[in-house]
């Protein structure tokens, strides 16, 4: 590194040419200057040039992108309510970190195609092994205690080691990422403690943590520049490659149903007069609580279309977080209504149909039918809530409406990434597939007697 006081070119030191009269005049001018601003403490100098800086950022971009994909692939399989919600949040936090890193790489004159097309076989092996976790506790160990903690440490070291002046944009970008990492990793520690306190074998989790930590060391750690060790053997993926599951899971606190999308039918007896404001109000809030199925939908879409289009991935990750917030909104509002949220049955119809379905048709159902269906009815509900001075419902529905409008708009680009089908063909095939699913679930009569369900019927049966 060059001396900060002298510059060396081809081995020759260039001495400063300072003139005494000019230096003394500068001293006098500073003495006469009235404002004593804080002194700049940063100094020129750091460990990395642009090429090494970009190499590390590109590697971290790939880790963050793959973490978002991987967590998305697990959203169906996670049964625990709080863990499913938090995973929906973390999917976006990792994808947003990837977006920040990507933007910085583009600023450092790396081509967009080079960034988006970047692949690393060693990271792929590590991530596939991590995703081969036996259950959610093992998943949290890998995502948070192994690679999550390693990335956090690498980010903090990079802030300390890169030039604080020439590379200030990277430092600011990393600090923004760390704002999400701190609560994310803290939550994971608490969640794993809850699993262990509830009976999960801690020694099994520790053995898995050590296995993944050794695998990470074998590929040079989070930076790729650390000393490499021997890879552990055998790997789980050597026996069975990782594949995402297709069946939705719920925890034991829920009473679930899948043979209808109608809450009144699932309850056995309506709680309020059908068609009344009270009935619509409760159905809307329960629908928000049951957006756990939307976390599952958009998370799996993110996995299924990985590497096709970064903007589509980013939008899917953001929508997944939005649906996690809607689930929280519904849960907290049911509490404010005076219910124990777990006393109200939870629907599985939507995820049961979408889980094994090709992503384009599953996305069409939730975007073209589900979210559009919400927008058809929510304005009337908002108006009625305002007329009745129902401030709680008015508050939540106002935000949900804004989100759904955004989702419908973003969904058009996502669908174009997923399929080349025209909208008419896509809608018709989606209705065909959901009719078949609903017949198999016993929701509707046989296709021969029932025919293909209409748009309105699909909205009703699926209950979006």
Short description:
The chain is mostly helical. It contains 19 helices and four strands.
CATH superfamily of the largest domain: Ferritin, core subunit, four-helix bundle
Q: Which fold name corresponds to the CATH topology of the largest domain?
A: Ferritin
Average pLDDT figure: 91
Secondary structure tally, helices = 19
Specify the helix fraction band: 55-70%
The figure for the number of domains is: 2
Which ranges are low-confidence, i.e. pLDDT below 50, for 5 or more consecutive residues?
A: 1-7
Question: What kind of assembly state do the chains in view correspond to?
Answer: single chain
Query: What is the name of the CATH class of the largest domain?
Result: Mainly Alpha
Major sheet strand order: 1-2
Largest sheet: 2 strands, antiparallel
Number of strands: 4
Supply the CATH architecture of the largest domain.
Answer: Up-down Bundle
Percent strand:
under 5%
The Rg value, from CA coordinates, equals 27 Å
